[in-house]
Here is the input.
Amino acid sequence: MKLWAGRFKHDVDQKTNDFNSSISFDCRMVKQDIMGSIAHAAMLGRQNIIDPSESEKIITGLQGILADIETGALKIDMQAEDIHTFIEGELTARIGDAGKRLHTARSRNDQVALDLRLYLLEQCGAVAQSLRGLIEVLLRQAAQHTETVMPGYTHLQRAQPITFGHHLMAYVQMLLRDLDRLADCKKRMAISPLGAGALAGTTYPLDRESVATELGLCGVCCNSLDGVSDRDFVIELLSCLSLVMVHLSRFAEEVILWCSWEFKFIELDDGFATGSSIMPQKKNPDIAELVRGKSGRVFGALLTLLTVMKGLPLAYNKDMQEDKQPVFDAVDTVLICTDTFAAMLDTMTVLKDNMRAAAAKGFINATDCADYLVGKGLPFRDAYKAVGTLVARCIDDGQTLETLPLSDYQSVCELFSEDVYDAISLDRCVQRRTVKGGPAPACVQQEIEAARTALKQVCKQF
Here is the structure.
């Protein structure tokens, strides 16, 4: 029977019932629904809103239902309207009329808002754990490659020498920010709407704060209208998840480039690549490509919720049932992408020699050559022009700055001397970049240690 059946003279059309039903996706909140109901029932008993003995009976019944669902002894009836209806119906079937008292001083509006908050709080922890695993992989890889020279790029053109460890640490910083945002989002999510009722609270003497405390929440919503109609916490989480996917997608793009023969900086383990049905030589980075593609699903979920909420008057509207599937899918997508990406990076082979060869061919030490002249007293703009002339000569003659004869240097600027070759050595170019956050091996090692500390601190919030 529908919870609202008394107002209606005949059953809802079956197609309408199927269209209205949400149990196919809100069933994943079954644990949260039962835990919320247990806390609510306990409070009803403490406040003598219902007989304490009936409160105990309800709690015992709910605990039994949860245990049976977890063991598989009880299957969720997918014909029920939603998970809340199923649980209340099962409870009443088990303990009789006492089960009908559970919904006292509560609406499905504040009930579902609570369930969703509790569920997403748990999922925040799961996403944080997954991100932590990826960051730890990156920290291990970075520590192994603090001296692995590679070209850094702007506009996908070789620009200046860095190390592979330095490059990986850029993604660590992005992911640490993702964790920090997730922790901040979690603070605003951990608020109880229970007690807001349908929209106007209730005349019963509820102890809302005790229920929030029992559920591990930080407080209660201050306005009953806002309590049932707020989905900012869903949108904020989706925004956080979208940024995670931006970062994974950018990284995936680089992995795809690095695997190509044009770069050949890394090789993926066979477990994280696929072949071609007609080209036997192919080894395709399909996992990275899927991560890049799946970012669109998460961005779409964010846009869905923004669109659903943008025109809704207060308070609850059925449109808000459309909040769950997008956010559930977004969480699932981020979790599988992050876990798979971490495993892929953990098993990749780094082709150091190819990285260094690419660094040697791109004149990426040109800025260091100009800085060398600045150190000799030449203004930077004059030094820039002199080195640009040398690069053009190298290109014409098939040379590099390392192989260009000293006489050619001195024909452009008399300040050049034999020590220029040490100044433009790729290793020296990297080692001298000791500014905090730079690619010098010692700086990268310091960054790794600082990131490990930051990771421990932010993970304490989950």
Notes: Residues 183 and 461 are 6 Å apart (CA to CA). The mean pLDDT is 95. The chain has three domains: 5-104, 110-357, 366-424. The first helix runs from residue 14 to 20.
